[in-house]
Amino acid sequence: MRIFGFHLMPWPYLTADDIANSDSSWVTMSNALYDPVKGHELYETYFNQLVMYDRVGFDGVSVNEHHQTAYGLMPSANVTAAMLIPQVKGMIAILGNALPLQANPLKIAEEVAYLDVVSGGRIISGFVRGIGAEYHSISMDPSTSRDRFYEAHDLVIKAWTDPGPFEWYGKHYKFRYVNPWPRPFQQPHPPIWSPSQGSAETVEWAAKNKYVYLQTFSDTKSCERIFAELQEAQVRHHGQVMSEYAGWSVPVYVGDTDESAIREAKPHIEHLFNDLLRMRRDQLFPAGYLTVESTSRVMSAKAKGLGIGRKTCEQLIESGIVIVGSADTVRDTIVERQRSFGFGNFSGIFHFGTLPNELFEASLTRFARHVLPTVRMLGTPALVTD
Amino acid sequence: MTSAIQSIQYFEVAGVRLRVLLEGQGAPLLFLHGSGDLGSWPEALTELSKHFLVIRPDHPGYSGSSDGESINSVHDISFVYLSLLDQMKLDRVSVMGVSLGGWIAADMAATEPSRFERLVLVDAAGLRPRGTYPDYFMLTAVELAENVYASSAMRESMSVFMAELENDTELFHTYLRNRASTAHLAFNPYMHDPQLLGRLHRVTAETLVVWGAQDGILPVETSDAWLEAIPSAKRVVIEDAGHLPHVEQTNQFLAVVSPMLGFRPTA
């Protein structure tokens, strides 16, 4: 199994008053709360943490983009990846570029190819629609999101694989000349990943295209259902289950004991889920972002989406959204989930919320020493047949 | 909200199947609903239909009408409705539009001015809002009710209605679909079309701008923008009314529009 370390680069300095004075950490939380001097030090810490994933032997680091929010301070995944190329030896997974938010998706084709060539083929290219709130953040009509995603994807892939120049006159994008230089180092193009919280359509799309489907921030029950759907779709399209095209992303904290792990991780993980992910319902699911049927399900007052309603660390562990515990507990949990879900890629989020650097380093060190050697062997043929 | 008297007719116009409610006879009055309308026949229309042939379509993408593949703006909807008038063989009409419907009405009147005798804009979207206003697309259904209505009685009863909306699957789906259609038309630029401002000089219809004094969606200051763009327009502000004065102060609304439309309300 391939192991990745992910980072969100959150703003950890929100006070209780800042949180009380705003109904969301997205879109409308004033950037007057951002302090660039503290921000400078913070980026240094966060980049060191990403580099540490590489140093302890992970296969890759993963980064993403978010816009106008304290939740994540990487407004460009590609810029982040560019800074990491000389600092890490392994893969860099861009998870991902939010295609529909781009006025010009050819810029993504150019930039990712650029990164791929400079890195000598170490780039994984994730494509996402962007979180609902981001349609508010950049004033993009959410009702065209799905359509724009597919069209931008088709355009980028064609730009990478068909010799240019050619014309593109789609519904949303129009180009007289598509002819990006450079072309990608990896042929026909960098591996594509599709991070999602489990939309049936995305699962189907990823399976059909042989893209790595990466399940993020989800409880065990949802994961079981979604990975089963993924495997069913893989068999339908390709005649076999392909664990190398399945991935699971989850926040992880490794302590000395289960008790100390929960004690140490609790305030920081709860800050992530309760304060940083906090959104108005119509921010998370803006008008037209999902189909009417899906919106109807998730908008119901009974629905308990992430970012809506408070959760404790213990509840998050219990439902399987996070893994917190001793090295034994974390290792056993990943082994058990891998057997149950069947993923061949694991993306751990070892930094979350307000987690101080010393706790991050201690947790990751324990993981590297006691968990990594076992879990990286998972999903290989030798273990699958045991 | 919808009484049983109206006839329902369907029209195929430019690839859109339009559901149209009709009632009354006489001079045609096209009524264009607002974005939050769930396919209703407001009480004011029952009175108006005693004097006019009232034609109330569901907009493309709303309630009983189909989506239009080629509908990407209010201007596109204008062309659908101009073609609807062609199909109905109505050369000259008066048009009354509320909120989003006012935006469409103004756009039509600027696009084919000779066709419109009178234009009634009620708390109309279409020009950049003025004053302090919430983001319609951030509001929950209940918050929407609280911002749309001025009187506490209306706020309370509509908040209850909106809170229970999700229990009525069909109506809730209509609400969500209409809202997605509004996002497609009005997410950016927010609730207006900068191009419209430059076209309104073409309007020749006698124009009345009606506004609820306590409009919490498009503040009453926004009516200034309409008077600046259509200098011949007259304005009436209705007290104790929010975004939908024709619903909240029906009698007063009818009294305000009747001299201009040339009828005497029966109530």
Task: Describe the overall structure.
The complex is a heterodimer of chains A (386) and B (267). Chain A is built from 15 helices and eleven strands. Chain A is α/β, with parallel strands linked by helices and 386 residues long. Chain A has one domain: Alpha-Beta Barrel (TIM Barrel), CATH 3.20.20. In chain A, the strands form two sheets. An eight-stranded parallel beta barrel of chain A has the order 1-2-3-4-7-8-9-11, surrounded by seven helices. In chain A, helix 2 (36-55) packs parallel to helix 14 (357-375), helix 7 (200-209) packs parallel to helix 8 and helix 13 (327-341) packs across helix 14. Chain A is globular. With 267 residues, chain B is of the alpha/beta class. Helix content of chain B is 37%, strand content 19%. Chain B has an eight-stranded mixed sheet, with helices on both faces. In chain B, strand 3, helix 1 and strand 4 form a beta-alpha-beta unit. In chain B, helix 4 runs antiparallel to helix 5 (152-163). The longest helix of chain B is centred in the middle third of the chain and has 18 residues, at 169-186. Chain B is globular and about 45 Å long. The chains are: A alpha/beta (386), B alpha/beta (267). Chain A binds chain B through residues 135-136, 139-144, 280-283, 286-288, 292-293, 295-296, 299-301, and chain B through 135, 137-140, 166, 169, 172-173, 176-177, 179-184, 187-188, 190.
The gist of it:
The complex is a heterodimer of chains A (386) and B (267). With 386 residues, chain A is of the alpha/beta class. Chain A is built from 15 helices and eleven strands.
